[in-house]
Design a protein that fits this description.
The chain is mainly alpha-helical. The chain folds into two domains: about 170 residues, no CATH class; about 50 residues, no CATH class. It contains twelve helices and three strands, in the order αααααββααβααααα. Strand 1 and strand 2 form a beta hairpin. Helix 4 runs parallel beside helix 9. It starts with 9 loop residues before the first helix and ends with a helix.
Length: about 260
């Protein structure tokens, strides 16, 4: 491995220290400026958002971050928030930031399957079999040819049967694309902020591809290589790592505190 990388790593590399998220003529760079003014939320809604984000704050250390935690928090927000206003969408953005942090940490540690689950692998896929009343849930980490393989049947026979007798239904897509689509469709966020999310997703995917092509199997093999690599090779690898932090997550939390404080 050869080469240098003089650019900053992690979130700093993707956002330029976040300076462009705060343009001079905008009071807050995350939210889209063209959004119409909203009516004041109810005290019930404000209280829920405050409680939700307080719980998110206390439960968001790196050790606690994983897909089940993020899914549970998202389900709670979608189920309990009375309205989808600016406070709601800032809370969704905070979940996105934690999901990006989680995926970036997994990528830095060569956790290929866990990264794939957040970035690409659908959470739930239904398989509808012709003539059956109820769908079958696809095993998330098992190929269809193995899930539906039968003793004595060749792989090509199983593929033909799947093509002719089943229809796939994407029930729940992976968490990162789901959150991004929700945020984009809401028209609540600035293009700069959405672009910062896209860049970090690309960085995660690029790192995983690089590590896989370099035949690193896990974090132990990566650390072993780092100890014996030359200074130039270490710099080249380190400049590709994600090394995201909670800075944007915390900035979003401050904005929510300001908004709820004025409205309480």
């Amino acid at each position: 491995m050869k080469g240098h990388c003089s650019s900053p790593t992690g979130l700093q590399a993707q956002t330029g220290l976040l300076s462009y998220l705060y343009p001079p003529k905008s009071t807050f760079g995350f939210l889209a400026s063209q959004k119409p003014a909203e009516t004041l939320p109810s005290s019930e809604h404000t209280a829920f958002i405050q409680q939700f984000n307080a719980a998110l704050e206390s439960a968001s250390p790196i050790a606690a971050l994983n897909e089940p935690f993020l899914e549970e928090r998202l389900a709670n927000l979608e189920r309990c928030a009375p309205i989808q206003d600016g406070l709601y969408w800032l809370s969704v953005a905070r979940l996105m930031e934690l999901a990006l942090l989680c995926a970036g940490n997994y990528a830095d540690a060569c956790e290929f399957q866990l990264v794939g689950d957040l970035l690409l692998n659908p959470r739930v896929v239904y398989i509808h079999v012709r003539g059956e009343d109820y769908p079958i849930v696809k095993h998330r980490h098992e190929p269809l040819t193995e899930q539906f393989g039968r003793h004595g049947c060749s792989t090509s026979d199983v593929i033909d049967w799947l093509k002719n007798e089943t229809i796939l239904e994407l029930k729940k897509e992976a968490l990162l694309p789901y959150l991004y689509k929700q945020m984009e469709d809401s028209r609540s966020f600035s293009e700069d902020y959405l672009e910062s999310i896209r860049k970090r997703k690309i960085r995660i995917a690029s790192l995983i591809g690089f590590l896989a092509n370099a035949s690193f199997e896990d974090a132990a093999s990566l650390h072993l290589w780092m100890r014996s690599a030359s200074s130039d090779d270490r710099k080249m690898l380190e400049c590709r790592l994600c090394r995201f932090d909670r800075s944007v997550f915390l900035k979003l939390g401050l904005k929510i505190q300001q908004m709820t404080g004025f409205r309480s």
